[in-house]
Structure formats: C-alpha cells, structure tokens
Amino acid sequence: MVKQLPTAPTQANSDPNPNPNPKRKARSNKPSSLNPNWVQLQSKLRLHSKPEPAVDTILGKRKERPSSDSELTTGLNPLSDDTSLTKVLAIDCEMVGVGFEGSKSALARVTLVNIWGNVVYDEYVRPVEHIVDYRTRISGIRPKHMKIAKEFWAVQERVAELIKGRIIVGHALHHDLKALLLSHPKKDTRDTSEYDPLRRGAKKRALKDLAAEILSVKIQQKEHCPVEDARAAMYIYNKHKKEWEKSLKDQFRQKNKLGHKKKKKLGADSNSDAFELLT
Fold first, then answer.
1. 170-175-178-180 Cα dihedral, nearest 10 degrees
2. Which fold has domain 74-240?
3. What is the three-class DSSP state of 167?
4. Are 225 and 205 contacting, i.e. CB atoms less than 8 angstroms apart?
5. Is 107 exposed, middle or buried (0-12, 13-18, 19+ CB in 10 A)?
6. Cα distance between residue 53 and residue 34, in whole Å
7. Boundaries of each Exonuclease domain copy (predicted)?
8. Global pTM?
9. pLDDT digits over 92-120, tens only?
10. What are the helix (H) ranges across the chain?
C-alpha cells in the first residue's frame, strides 16, 4: 500500500499577507523594541495636549468671547485711614448749567482728597446764578443737594486755604480752577491730562481710560463721583510720581540755566555798550 505524502500548504493558506521580500521584516503598528522612548513620548504628548473646547451646536448661537472689561474692578477705596492734610491733594469738581439754556458751567460740588485717597473736604455749592440744567446724568447733582449747599464765596475761600502752598493733582485742572475762580502756581499743579507719558501723542485721554489702563478700575460708568475721580487722579499720580517729579525738576533746571545764560548775555551787551560810550 502506497502512503500518500502530505502536501505542502499553499501560500494562500499559510500567510494571508505574504511578505514579498523574506529578508525584510514586515512593519508592525506596535512599537518595536528598537524604539524604547516611544511609550514615554506618547505619554508626554497626551499630558501636554489640550482638550478641544465644546462647541455649542444650537443654530444661531455664537460662542462668547471674554471681554477685557471683565478683568476690571469697580470703585476705588482709600489706601489708609489717615485723613490728615498731606502735602499733595487731589481735587475734582462737578458743574451744573447756568445762563442761556444752561450752556454756562457753574460749580455745584467740590471734593479734595489727600495722598491716601481720604476725603479732607467735600461740599455742595450753591451757584451765584440760577441753575437751568442740573446735568444730573453726568454731575449727579439734584435739586435736593442745593438744600444743604454752601454759598460759593465761602467754599471758594476754604478751598483756597486748603490748597495754598500744596501740590494739587487732578484731571483737566484748568476747568476746576476756572469754576472756583482761583489760580494756582504751575509748578504746584500735576494734571493727568497734560502729563506727556499719559497722553496718546498730542491727544489727551479721558480719566476713565487712564483709570482702566493704569489702575484696572472702572469709573464714571453712570453719574460721576468727584470723590472717585479725585482718587483716580491721585493714584495715577502716585504710580508715576518718581518719574513725574524728576522730569519737572529737569525742566525747571533747564529753564533756570537758560535764564542765567540770557542774563549773562544781556549783561555782556550792556557792558559793551557802556564801553563804546566811554571810548
């Protein structure tokens, strides 16, 4: 009896994915032993990868973006409980409309705060002329405030006493001084609307914009508060005080230097003229 020899398995049955080149090893999707850092690399990638934000699929609804205003706080508080009259005071005034159709501004409230932001003087003022427009939307002044208001001349006298010999800080100070019918030495005024580093080129900036940028605080959202505005001006000044005072000293020094040179020149010219007359 002849035994039937077993036939060699066909290529199709033995290897469903034949390798045409037996000398080269087939690639594998699994990390090979030749790449020991593979697992470590993948774990690092998973660790540092950020999950995709969830997308709202409701039709017509837009994804909200964070606003820079959300990072701002509201209100300014005193930095200390010291209510003394410091060498530097900040001032702010609120006006009402008088005259024809209320087009002329008149003082209705004045506030002074010290370097710590504490109120040292705050009074409502009864204008000399009849009030036509209270400008409440901005000034916050109402008819009821006039019942407790002081006469203009009394307030003016007191403010003049308080600021005499002191540095005053404010925003657009010429408006406040004009409303008070007062003047103040230029060397003792610090106006946040005039200080060059706080301006945008030749353009003056609003106090609320400076407060938002420098103090990260929102002010003047509705009616203006002279206490808050005076504090804002003072705190902005405090932030720039060192550079501000140095620049003023340099300006005065340069001005005095030019003045001395001019006097010397005038003196030399007069001596020359006198010598010519003698000869």
1. -60
2. Nucleotidyltransferase; domain 5 (3.30.420)
3. strand
4. no
5. buried
6. 37
7. 87-246
8. 0.68
9. 999 999 999 999 999 999 999 999 999 99
10. 11-14, 38-48, 136-139, 152-163, 173-180, 207-210, 226-278
Distance between CA atoms of 83 and 119, rounded to whole angstroms? 7
Q: Where are the domains of the chain?
A: 74-240
CB burial string 241-277: b at 16+ within 10 A, e below = eeebeeeeeeeeeeeeeeeeeeeeeeeeeeeeeeeee
- Position 99, amino acid: G
In Å, what is the CA distance from 78 to each residue of 68, 140, 142, 166, 261? 25, 21, 26, 20, 47
Tokens standing for residue 48: 């540092």
Tokens 């405090």 -> residue: 238
Secondary structure (3-state) at 13: helix
Question: What are the C-alpha distances in Å from 188 to residues 34, 69, 168?
Answer: 78, 34, 6
Would you say the C-alpha torsion 12, 15, 21, 27 has a positive or negative sign?
positive
